[in-house]
Design brief:
The chain is an all-beta fold and 119 residues long. The protein is built from no helices and eleven strands. The N and C termini lie far apart (41 Å).
Length: 119
């Protein structure tokens, strides 16, 4: 049974940083070399939106990551295959980054982790 668990959210001031973690259990990334793992977010009163993706197989697309324009240069997605964990390093946070952040793999979602950026 696949389980997705996000953690690492919190409250920070503008300009601050947070690192989110997503542990995906019950499945191996290597079993799905043509898939992507994604971080999404849902701001208050808005629809869920894509933040960043990373391929499960490092050799695909040269391990290329994709980012929403709004987070390029500030957020970095990475993964640790041995730990079945995906990270989202968020720097230079802005109030508009406030949202519940979710991790997704093959249609499986976690419960989300709240990120609040406010002075």
């Amino acid at each position: 049974q696949v389980q997705v668990v996000e953690s690492g959210g919190g409250s920070v001031q503008p300009g601050g940083s947070l690192r989110l973690s997503c542990i995906i259990s019950g499945v191996s990334f290597s079993a799905f070399p043509y898939d992507d793992i994604g971080w999404y977010r849902q701001p208050p009163g808005n629809q869920r939106q894509l933040v960043a993706t990373i391929p499960t197989f490092d050799g695909r697309n040269s391990g290329g990551r994709n980012y929403a324009d709004s987070v390029k240069g500030r957020f970095t997605i990475s993964k640790d295959n041995a730990k079945n964990t995906v990270y989202l390093q968020m720097n230079s946070l802005k109030p508009e980054d406030t949202a519940v952040y979710y991790c997704n793999f093959r249609g499986y979602w976690g419960q989300g982790t709240q990120v609040t950026v406010s002075s």
